[in-house]
Amino acid sequence: MRLQMVPRNVVFSTLKREFHYEVSGLGLDNEEFVYKLLDRRWALSSPESKIHQVFISDKCKEGDGVIRKVSYKNNPHPSLGDVMVERNPQQPSFYVVRDDLRHPLVNGNKARKLDALLPFLEDHSITDVVTCGGLQSAHTAAVAVSCSERGLKAHLLVRGEQPQILTGYALISTLYGHVKYVPRSLYAKREDMLLKHAEMVAHSGGSVLHLNDLLRNPFKLHSLPRDDISKFNAPIGTKKVAIVNEGAGDAVALLGVIRLVQFLSQKHLFGNDQKLKIVIDAGTGTTATGLGLGAELLGLPWEVIAIMLADTVDGYREKEKSLISEFCSSYQSSVVKHNSSRINNGIVQWVQRTLPRKFGNILDGEIQECQRIARQTGILVDPVYTLAAWELASKLSFEDEDAKVLMIHTGGTLGMFGLAQRYKSCFQGLNESE
């Protein structure tokens, strides 16, 4: 299978011409800037995540021909830090950040993006959150569960028609949040749709706030004592409604991902001088951008490689550009001097999936491959998102003996239920699989 990769020189030179990132040239040095940036309340009690190491070996002959097939073995307690074992080219391996284990109902990447966002909304006395997503959106489920856990109300606009039987993320979204199904023609105009629904939720006397407006001076609010923050509270009974973009694709969502990068760069884990290739599946591209930005701000020799699943390379490049622009506008006023940038050349390498397809579709044999990986390693991947990252991490572990390969397992377990409902034939015969 041939991996279709976007040439770095073409993509990044174009980015350099079209957009000049203004993140570096800090008034403080980068380490101080990141420390200040991350000195805030978080939704997650800790940025920690379990790290596993998956070893790969060639498998067998099948039938009359020789088929090169690999098998996997999971080590849930790998040696890291100073005692990290040097790579054995005869038995390649890659590491897996088990963010899928963080919460039974909230995907790992969603939890990271909500890590700073939820306390930020609380500090502004937000009472209700309006967002949107597809029928089996992990984002809407994560917002519904996380808001409910913190006493906020989640209003979810879901594209399409309500199914006869709810399952997977659709069921969780409905159990925890207030769901409204929206025709595709209206959903296509997301901004108008979200604003109109937020205004309806706010009623008369309430207010609707966009995250961009709230982010104008984020350091100021987080530096206030808790008692002083209370002055931002709305009168009792008044609704303050915040609109969160689809997939939490907002600059504040980058902070939780940067926090993850800081955690992984600790000396007892991967350190700050280890060459590392980080692989992640990309929906909106927000998590990948956060990983790249975190690595850049901390000066890490890490390469972020994101598999494009839901858009074209131009779309992802534009999203990366937009997020970093928003990040600069939101956070540089307090600590960043407008100076030359180190992020001119782009921070994410966007690559095609081995077998591209329309977003959400699965191919014959992919459910069985997920089953085979689960049986051999105890790690469940899904065919829409994380199988793509797993395949690329496996491939890269054979190709580069100098770099460690690290896959961020974003989750997706509940998505299997929705897929089983939609692709019944693909799930038939699993008991007969090897």
Automatic annotation (TrEMBL):
InterPro entries: ACCD_DCysDesulf, TrpB-like_PALP_sf. One of its GO terms (molecular function) is D-cysteine desulfhydrase activity. Its cofactor is pyridoxal 5'-phosphate. Keywords: Pyridoxal phosphate. It comes from the Eukaryota. SUPFAM superfamilies: Tryptophan synthase beta subunit-like PLP-dependent enzymes. Belongs to the ACC deaminase/D-cysteine desulfhydrase family. This is Deaminase.
